Amino acid sequence: MLGYNPPVGFHFIVRFNGLDGAQLDTMFQSVSGLSASIETEEVAFGGENRFKHVLPVRTKYPNLVLKRGMLLESKLIEWCTNAIENFEFKPLDLTITLLSEQHLPLMTWNVVHAYPIRWEIEEFNSMESKLIAETIELSYHYFTTLSVIDKLKSL
Questions:
Q1: Which of 1-15, 27-41, 66-80 is least confident?
Q2: Which domains does the chain have, with CATH numbers?
Q3: Please, what is the end-to-end C-alpha distance for the chain in angstroms?
Q4: Any residues with CB less than 8 A from the CB of 111 and at least 6 apart, and which?
Q5: Closest to 135 measured CA to CA, from 66, 85, 75
């Protein structure tokens, strides 16, 4: 396509289903881990010694890592703390939406059955003048994608 400009990666929003009223819990500095790969298995068939067949087994998803400036009051951190300190896990679905310059959704990733496995606060350092960041790492089952183009085609 002539004149096509790929979307920018700094305009996005993260929404956790079930954490209502947590407006600040939608804003993050970075999101990583939106990737998928296929696990494979090698199978040798009798009589053929030159190679092994490589067969697909299942899709594998890495952990989702969310980073942001530390919030003092956060429903998301309450959810994480409850899992880490009390070992009470309440998996949630979440959506990550890439937005256009006009704040319209371009692509959405629906992350299914996520729960916290790590929460980290950046180191305190009296020699630096910077904001404190927190990192939340989530395990999840899988994600699906939905683009605006797909949505328009279905109308």
A1: 1-15
A2: 12-35+63-154 (2.30.110)
A3: 23
A4: 64, 93, 94, 95, 96, 138, 140, 143
A5: 66
Q: Which token pair is 110?
A: 């629906």
Q: State the Cα–Cα distance between residues 101 and 76, nearest whole angstrom.
A: 27
pLDDT tens-place string over residues 121-132: 999 989 988 899
The string of pLDDT tens digits covering residues 81-121 is 999 999 999 999 999 999 988 888 999 999 999 999 999 99
Residue type, 61: Y
Residue labelled with tokens 């003092």: 72
Place of tokens 């998928």: 36
Rounded to an integer, what distance in angstroms lies between the CA atom of residue 2 and that of residue 116?
43
pTM above 0.90, yes or no: no
- Indicate the Cα dihedral angle 42, 57, 144, 97, nearest 10°: -40
The 10s digit of each residue's pLDDT in 26-63 is: 889 999 999 999 999 998 887 777 888 899 999 999 99
22: left (phi over 0), alpha (psi -120 to 50) or beta: beta
Query: CA 8, CA 118: separation in Å to the nearest integer?
Result: 28
